[in-house]
């Protein structure tokens, strides 16, 4: 019998149009750009059938036999919430935080919409039945999901009033009795080539007349007319030289929709701008999904910190005060992020349906400071290792094979052998200097939207009077 992971890989042999280097890929599982990351995902999926792992990443379905990933668990108690957290943590730890869109984020958004179906059902009479059917299918069939939200960068100073922009942003061109036909593009969807479905919406603040652009859709990746246009691959299968790039390049792609038909059952909302805005602002769904973002972030910070400690020890610079200060800073990053995760969980409150919703204000804070923590953590690693990252020879095996005695002589570290030191610095370079590493820094700056507007939103949506009132009171008292 095929494993869960193998079934996942087989399920990708469909009519999808994945374009890479100008050609359509026929078999993702054997393609050099995808083989490594898909093997990683296969092993993560298989954890759900491994008796020693499945309770960490999954929960029992109503049949009390099969397991589904805990991102589909609707939390009613703190234990449920922590079970979700454990699943996010376990997958992130397995990939050292280097695979960020393992579907658990998008699955959580679906779980959140399902959990809030009574409330959201007020937006559209068919919403509740559609989301219930989809949630159940996605959960029971282990569907891999990703989001495609951001519209293409055509001219950010113009909105939908500009025809050039409106025509390229995803919009409905026709309605039929069976569904809608959409045209346009979406800017980035991570994991797009191997996803089953795209969760599609937009960050736009629609006006009522912009109804054709206002929709929330669930679109199968193999729909006719979708072109999944991949960026350059950052996979490097020289495993000893690129431990991370050989396994974790989760691939980002642009989506072109060439008059794609979407049946009504996959159109969650369409045509009423205010309903789409209300759904997007739904606290239950956003909290459950964004909670995943910050749990997985801890694993990544721990990984960078581990590498920084090892680099510092291996060349004996951990004895310097300023290096210790920087290593200490990395620890404060981890504790800050962990504390915000804990705070969001223990201060979770039930929504009107009794679903326990993590405290969103801590989650927003964690996502915002995360945009600054990661670039700073990478900067610290550079400051600690200096030129050591580029002194390593091109190919690990070759050099130790050809001029072994010199290698052992000149590459030895304070606490480690030459081989271990070269391996360690290659790993660190893969994190800070490889194409994959640079992509991760960009990802952490932008994955949650524009960080500038996200910080500004924290201010504009805050209870400002609670901060300024005491100041005015103090001034009044002083001037009496
Ligand atoms: C590696 C990576 C993977 C991603 N994966 C996904 C994914 O899977 N799914 C998904 O939906 N999205 C994904 N994203 C997209 C991400 O959500 C966007 O990059 C993010 O929302 C920022 O939008 P943008 O890139 O279009 O930048 P822009 O919004 O174009 O911003 C560019 C610059 O212009 C400024 N700017 C632009 N407009 C304004 C304005 N109105 N006011 C003030 N300043 C402005 C910004 O501050 C910024 O400095 C991914 C991004 C990256 C980098």
Explained architecture:
- The chain has 480 residues and is an alpha+beta fold.
- It has two domains: 7-279, Butyryl-CoA Dehydrogenase, subunit A, domain 2 (Beta Barrel); 282-465, Butyryl-CoA Dehydrogenase, subunit A, domain 3.
- Helices cover 49% and strands 14% of the residues.
- The chain contains 18 helices and 14 strands.
- The chain has helices spanning 4-11, 35-46, 54-57, 78-94, 104-115, 117-120, 127-140, 163-168, 273-280, 283-314, 321-346, 360-385, 396-402, 404-410, 418-432, 435-446, 451-460, 465-479, and strands spanning 18-20, 23-24, 58-60, 67-69, 145-148, 171-175, 179-190, 197-200, 215-220, 226-230, 252-263, 267-270, 349-350, 356-357.
- The strands form four sheets. Strands 2-1-10-11-7-6 form a six-stranded mixed sheet. The protein has a four-stranded mixed sheet with strand order 5-8-9-12. Strands 3-4 form a two-stranded antiparallel sheet.
- Helix 10 runs antiparallel to helix 15.
- The model has no long low-confidence stretch (mean pLDDT 95).
- Flavin-adenine dinucleotide binds at residues 101, 146-150, 153, 156, 187-190, 252, 439, 442-443, 446-447, 449-450, 452-453.
């Amino acid at each position: 019998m095929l494993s869960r992971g193998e079934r996942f890989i087989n399920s990708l042999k469909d009519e999808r149009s994945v374009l890479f280097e100008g050609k359509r890929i026929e078999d993702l599982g054997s393609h050099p750009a995808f083989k490594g990351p898909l093997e990683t995902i296969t092993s993560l999926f298989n954890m759900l059938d491994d008796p020693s792992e499945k309770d960490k990443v999954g929960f029992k379905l109503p049949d009390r036999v099969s397991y589904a990933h805990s991102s589909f668990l609707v939390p009613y108690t703190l234990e449920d919430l922590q079970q979700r957290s454990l699943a996010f943590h376990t997958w992130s730890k397995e990939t050292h935080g280097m695979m960020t869109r393992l579907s658990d984020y998008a699955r959580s958004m679906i779980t959140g919409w399902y959990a809030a179906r009574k409330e959201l059902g007020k937006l559209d009479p068919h919403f509740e039945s559609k989301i219930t059917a989809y949630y159940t299918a996605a959960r029971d069939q282990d569907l891999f999901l990703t989001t495609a939200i951001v519209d293409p960068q055509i001219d950010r100073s113009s909105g939908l009033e500009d025809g050039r922009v409106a025509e390229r942003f995803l919009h409905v061109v026709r309605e039929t009795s069976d569904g809608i036909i959409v045209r346009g593009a979406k800017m980035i969807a991570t994991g797009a080539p191997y996803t089953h479905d795209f969760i599609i919406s937009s960050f736009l603040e629609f006006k009522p007349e912009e109804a054709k652009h206002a929709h929330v859709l669930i679109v199968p990746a193999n729909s006719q007319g979708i072109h999944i246009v991949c960026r350059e691959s950052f996979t490097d299968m020289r495993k000893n030289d690129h431990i991370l790039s050989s396994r974790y390049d989760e691939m980002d792609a642009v989506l072109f929709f060439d008059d794609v038909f979407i049946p009504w059952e996959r159109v969650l909302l369409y045509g009423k701008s205010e309903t789409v805005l209300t759904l997007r602002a739904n606290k239950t769904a956003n909290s459950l999904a964004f909670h995943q973002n910050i749990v997985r972030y801890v694993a990544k910070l721990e990984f960078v910190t581990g590498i920084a400690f090892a680099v510092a020890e291996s060349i004996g610079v951990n004895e310097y005060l300023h290096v210790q200060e920087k290593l200490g800073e990395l620890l404060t990053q981890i504790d800050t992020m962990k504390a915000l995760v804990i705070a969001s969980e223990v201060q979770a409150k039930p929504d009107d349906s009794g679903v326990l919703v993590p405290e969103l204000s801590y989650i927003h804070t964690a996502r915002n400071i995360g945009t600054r923590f990661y670039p700073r953590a990478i900067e610290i690693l550079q400051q600690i290792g200096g030129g050591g990252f580029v002194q390593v020879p091109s190919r690990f095996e070759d050099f130790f094979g050809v001029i072994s005695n010199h290698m052992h002589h000149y590459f030895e570290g304070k606490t480690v052998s030459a081989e271990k030191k070269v391996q360690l610095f290659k790993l660190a370079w893969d994190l800070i200097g490889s194409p994959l590493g640079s992509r991760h820094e960009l990802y952490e700056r932008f994955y949650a939207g524009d960080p500038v507007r996200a910080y500004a939103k924290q201010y504009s949506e805050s209870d400002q009077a609670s901060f300024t009132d005491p100041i005015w009171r103090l001034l009044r008292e002083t001037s009496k």
